[in-house]
Every structure is written in structure tokens, then in C-alpha cells.
């Protein structure tokens, strides 16, 4: 899904701690060997914003993976292996994500990574993982170019073999939102704003293209910066535009303030955004002014899926922080895809020297029923699950109002 851009840092060599093993990857819990029943430790890395901006959804990713790992260990899904999670905080900053990627690559126990949350962070991680042959599955990135290349609208070309995602792309999300706005909400004039980031700007652009194609009019466009808090001048522009809908490409951190200031300023039109806004934090922070606002998000509501019932119960029982409803299920499925691939490569706890490369190949062949829907990847590394849902704030809660797919052709 998503993004925060800042200038790149020149990274220094990252040193890892802990004893490495007798094999190229993986470590022994003790020195007694397999005859005594000891197991090889394999680490699933996680990269997401765990503090600060976007942390509610980032924590949902971390603990979605944690539950998958705990389930794998409990069920002994990979005999001879104990899985552990190593979660690193990128703070939604691309340079931090790149540094985290380097650290995870240097840790020989890491055989797969789930994350990041933000598309802009992903752009600075992909090459690091690809060079090392380490598989990466994002549960939330939606920028089309990550899997289909910069010129994806004219010629699709996969840039990195090691990158996959369980979330569908903005090529579908933007059109799905525009179709709902024009044909269901019957909106005809939209004011469009984005946060100038990879995810936000890309999503807003695709919404604009599809809304105009449907017959709608864009009254005006504007941009804000990440971290902005005063939107009084924007409110005036929207009020004078005559728009009957406000579309925002970006995260909940800013949009929750924008919608409050719009409504407080007398602009009584709904704010519509993408999955970067789909968080209970948005409603909690904006309060009553968020009533009637809308978002699109990937998949169908996890709470409606029978396969996710145990996952949700566990998340609540453990009192894990963050929002499991946004990407928790997709994170669980991403981690499970990696674990299943590892099971096809690591036998009796023995990790081959080329394990990482083999795991990438196994992930490409993934096919199973996940807790958030079917899990499989096409030739670009994109999920074959194209489901999307529109949610609306109704009586202080996100309510699913339409689920379906969108044909971007």
C-alpha cells in the first residue's frame, strides 16, 4: 500500500550478533545436534513502522506474522525447525527501511521477510533483498511499479524476482474507488489532494483518471506534505470549488485532521481515500466529523472470513497492539507462504547453502487457502486475489458497503 519518502542515507556495513551455525543459514539452539532433539532456528524478518507515523497498521503486520510463526511452531509445520520473528522499525522512512533490509540480509538465520507497509519504503528495500536472493512478501504495498516496472501502464516488466505481495495494486484500487464514487455515490465533482508520496500520489492519479473516464469532473487538485497539521487554506479552496466529494491519496495521519478541519469549516462533503486511511485510529482521532467518510481497502473484511476466526480470537486474547483488520490477515498469509516454502527446502532441520534462492522459487509456486483468501502469485509476483472493499464510517465504525473486483483493462 504505501509510503514515506525522505532522502537516502549512505549505509554503513551492518554487523550482526549471535552465533552462526554449522550450516550456511540457520542456527542451533544448542551444540548437541539433531540426535538430542534440538532444532534449527529460522528467523522470519518483519519490516514496518512500529512507532510514529502509520504504527497502528505497522503493528498489525508485526503481530499477524507473530501469530503465524507461533502456529507453525505449535503444529510443527517444518520438522526440525523452530521459527522466530525479528521485527525492525522503519518509522515509515525509506532510508530506515533500506538499512533494515541490509541488517536482515546480514543475519544468516533470516530466510524470508514480511513487509514493508509503505510502497515508498519498498522502493529502497527491493534491490537489497534481490541482490541477496532473500524473499520479501509485502502484505500492503499497492504501487503497481513495484512488481510491474516503472512503465507498467504501457509495458509490464518485473524488476525483482524476490519481491511478492499479498495485497492487490492501486491499478485496481483507484478504479474501484472511482467507479463507486461516480456510479453508487452519484458524485460528479471531486477535489483531489495527495501527500506527494509514492503511494498517495499514485493512487490519486489513478482515481482521477478513472473518475474522469466515468464522466466526472475534477474541480481542482492540491498537495500537502507529510506531517502537516494546519489545513485552513485547503479548506477555503475546497469550499470555493463546489466539489461534492473530496478524494485524498495518503495516510490516516493527515487525513484524520483534514476531514475534521473540513467539517468544522463548513464543508459538509465526504472524504474518500485508500487503504492507507483504513484504520480505527482514523475514526478515533477525527471523531464525529469522520461520519460518512469512505475508504477502499484490499480484500474482503477479515471479520467475515471463517478461516480468520481463530486468528482474530488469538490477536484479541494476546491483547496485541495495532489494527489486525487492515493487513493482519494478509501478514499471516505472507508469513505462512514463506514458512511453507521453507518446509519444502529445509529437511530435518538441515539448511542447504542455497536455501534462500530455493525458497524464492518455492514462494513463486505458492498455492493454498489462506485466512484472508486464496494465496498465489502471478508472473510479476502479484497476488491473484483481486478482491477489494469499500468501507464507510457508519455510527463511528467502519462498515463494509461493497466488495468486488475491478477490471482495469
TrEMBL record:
<keyword id="KW-0732">Signal</keyword>
<feature type="domain" description="Leucine-binding protein">
    <location>
        <begin position="41"/>
        <end position="396"/>
    </location>
</feature>
<comment type="similarity">
    <text>Belongs to the leucine-binding protein family.</text>
</comment>
<protein>
    <submittedName>
        <fullName>Branched-chain amino acid ABC transporter substrate-binding protein</fullName>
    </submittedName>
</protein>
<dbReference type="Pfam" id="PF13458">
    <property type="entry name" value="Peripla_BP_6"/>
</dbReference>
<dbReference type="InterPro" id="IPR028081">
    <property type="entry name" value="Leu-bd"/>
</dbReference>
<dbReference type="InterPro" id="IPR028082">
    <property type="entry name" value="Peripla_BP_I"/>
</dbReference>
Amino acid at each position: 500500500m504505501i509510503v514515506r519518502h525522505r532522502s537516502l542515507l549512505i549505509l554503513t556495513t551492518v554487523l550482526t550478533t549471535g552465533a552462526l551455525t554449522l550450516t550456511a543459514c540457520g542456527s542451533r539452539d544448542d551444540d548437541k545436534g539433531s540426535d538430542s532433539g534440538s532444532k534449527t532456528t529460522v528467523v522470519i524478518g518483519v519490516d514496518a513502522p512500529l512507532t510514529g507515523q502509520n504504527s497502528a497498521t505497522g503493528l498489525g503486520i508485526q503481530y499477524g506474522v507473530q501469530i503465524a510463526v507461533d502456529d507453525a511452531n505449535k503444529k510443527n509445520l517444518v520438522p526440525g525447525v523452530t521459527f522466530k520473528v525479528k521485527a525492525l522499525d522503519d518509522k515509515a522512512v525509506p532510508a530506515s527501511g533500506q538499512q533494515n533490509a541490509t541488517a536482515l540480509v546480514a543475519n544468516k538465520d533470516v530466510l524470508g521477510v514480511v513487509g514493508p507497509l509503505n510502497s515508498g519504503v519498498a522502493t529502497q528495500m527491493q534491490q537489497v533483498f534481490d541482490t541477496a536472493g532473500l524473499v520479501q512478501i509485502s502484505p500492503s504495498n499497492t504501487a503497481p511499479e513495484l512488481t510491474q516496472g516503472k512503465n507498467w501502464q504501457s509495458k509490464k516488466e518485473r524488476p525483482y524476482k524476490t519481491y511478492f505481495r499479498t495485497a492487490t495494486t492501486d491499478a485496481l484500487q483507484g478504479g474501484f474507488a472511482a467507479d463507486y464514487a461516480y456510479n453508487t455515490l452519484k458524485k460528479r465533482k471531486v477535489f483531489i489532494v495527495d501527500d506527494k508520496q509514492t503511494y498517495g500520489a499514485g493512487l490519486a492519479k489513478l482515481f482521477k483518471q478513472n473518475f474522469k473516464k466515468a464522466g466526472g469532473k475534477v474541480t481542482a487538485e492540491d498537495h500537502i506534505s507529510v506531517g502537516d497539521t494546519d489545513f485552513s487554506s485547503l479548506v477555503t479552496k475546497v469550499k470555493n470549488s463546489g466539489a461534492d466529494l473530496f478524494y485524498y491519496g495518503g495516510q490516516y495521519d493527515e487525513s484524520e485532521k483534514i476531514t475534521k478541519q473540513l467539517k468544522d469549516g463548513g464543508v459538509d462533503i465526504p472524504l474518500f481515500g485508500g487503504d492507507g486511511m483504513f484504520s480505527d485510529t482514523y475514526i478515533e482521532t477525527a471523531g464525529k466529523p469522520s461520519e460518512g467518510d469512505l475508504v477502499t481497502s484490499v480484500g474482503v473484511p477479515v471479520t467475515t472470513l471463517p478461516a480468520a476466526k481463530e486468528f482474530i480470537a488469538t490477536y484479541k486474547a494476546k491483547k496485541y497492539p495495532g489494527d489486525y483488520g487492515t493487513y493482519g490477515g494478509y501478514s499471516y498469509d505472507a508469513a505462512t507462504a514463506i514458512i511453507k516454502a521453507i518446509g519444502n527446502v529445509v529437511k530435518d532441520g538441515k539448511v542447504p547453502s542455497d536455501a534462500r534462492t530455493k525458497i524464492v522459487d518455492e514462494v513463486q509456486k505458492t498455492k493454498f487457502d489462506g485466512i484472508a483468501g486464496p494465496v498465489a502469485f502471478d508472473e510479476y509476483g502479484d497476488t491473484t486475489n483481486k478482491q477489494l472493499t469499500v468501507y464507510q464510517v457508519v455510527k463511528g465504525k467502519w462498515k463494509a458497503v461493497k466488495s468486488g473486483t475491478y477490471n482495469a483493462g
